[in-house]
Amino acid sequence: MTADDYTTLMKDELEDLAGHRLKALVSIEENKRRVARWYDKRVKVKEFADGDLVWKLILPIGTKSLKFGKWSPNWEGPYRISRSAPGNAYILETLKGVEFPRALNGKYLKNTTLVFGLMHETFKCR
Length: 126
Fold this sequence. Notes:
This protein is an alpha+beta fold. It contains 3 helices and 5 strands, in the order αβββββαα. It folds into 2 domains: 1-43; 53-124, SH3 type barrels, CATH 2.30.30. The chain has helices spanning 3-42, 113-116, 119-124, and strands at residues 53-57, 75-85, 89-93, 104-105, 109-111. The N and C termini lie far apart (89 Å).
């Protein structure tokens, strides 16, 4: 095999390598879309409207009252959603109308209708 034949074969292999890389990239992107669809089917989206009553997770996670030990409450509230911020964040206020200074992510909130049931409507009106 001559040197010219060898270089042309190597160049052909490089072109084939680019094709293989493109196929691998397409395969990876398809797998990512498939995993995202699988994940999105199982995610429960929490959305709250202004004026909804919610429970707030006691943050930081892992702080327990020495008085109650492991039976310390995990949730506190109820609080009212004052307004929504971008990115599933909410600004809360107490039932007396005192607003929290910082927004809280929706994953740390739980709807009070799970706890109060029909009483939710009586608390919701201002």
